[in-house]
Specification:
There is one protein chain. The protein is an all-beta fold. The protein has strands at 4-9, 15-22, 25-38, 41-48, 52-59, 64-73.
Length: 91
């Protein structure tokens, strides 16, 4: 999936994602959780304001960003699977 990414400088001065656009949906990047590099590619795992973790890939030759993966929703009390909430009582 093609996305639009706005970048800002990291603590080391390298550009890294600060805003992720999925269509018209704007998501603030709260944290760059991980980053890694491959020849001509840069990868970022980011935690966004919607509680998701996204893996973004930048093709350094073309400057094109892609959404490589949506890894998980952040752990939150309301996001637990119904089966993990304990026994259900029937009346």
């Amino acid at each position: 999936m093609t996305v639009r990414v706005e970048c800002g400088p990291s603590a080391q001065g390298e550009p890294e994602p600060v805003v992720l656009w999925l269509g018209r949906r704007r998501l603030q990047v709260l944290e760059v959780v991980d980053r890694w590099f491959a020849p001509a590619m840069r990868w970022f795992k980011v935690h966004t304001e919607d509680g998701q973790l996204y893996v973004l890939r930048l093709d350094e030759h073309s400057g094109r960003w892609e959404l490589a993966a949506l890894t998980r929703q952040a752990d939150a009390p309301n996001s637990a699977h119904p089966a993990s909430r304990g026994p259900r009582m029937s009346h």
